[in-house]
Specification:
single chain, alpha+beta, Wheat Germ Agglutinin (Isolectin 2), domain 1, Dihydrolipoamide Transferase, two-stranded antiparallel ribbon, 3 helices, 2 strands
Length: 118
């Protein structure tokens, strides 16, 4: 014995219909639609995407940090100390350091040993 399943449009019960998946604002949906209702949904989604283009052209993909045009946050020198703090200390203690780039090893050593008596 065979089982025959018929998918009907969720709006008006017409057949044939197909399951259609779509997402809006991060929420996923599934609905059974006839060809006519599918065309209507496609037109709405196309208009929606077209109207959002102004925003999607400048938006970043989810999960990535924002670029604000401001100076980046302070970065560690890789040794667990704040590079800006080391640079400030170095200038106050007579070392010649640049505003950007790698901090010289001798400056890092002096900073680490600043509290030690020798």
């Amino acid at each position: 014995m065979a089982i025959i399943s018929t998918v009907a449009d969720d709006f008006d019960g017409s057949t044939p219909a197909e399951a259609v998946r779509f997402s809006v604002a991060g929420r996923d949906y599934e609905i059974d639609l006839s060809k006519e209702h599918r065309a209507e949904l496609d037109a709405i989604m196309a208009e929606f995407q077209d109207r959002l283009k102004k925003f999607t052209d400048v938006a970043r993909p989810a999960g990535r940090a924002a670029s604000t045009g401001r100076t980046p946050a302070r970065r560690s020198s890789g040794s667990g100390v704040d590079a800006s703090t080391v640079r400030l200390w170095a200038v106050e203690n007579g070392f010649d350091v640049k505003d950007r780039g790698r901090i010289p090893v001798e400056v890092m050593d002096a900073y680490r040993n600043r509290g030690k008596k020798g």
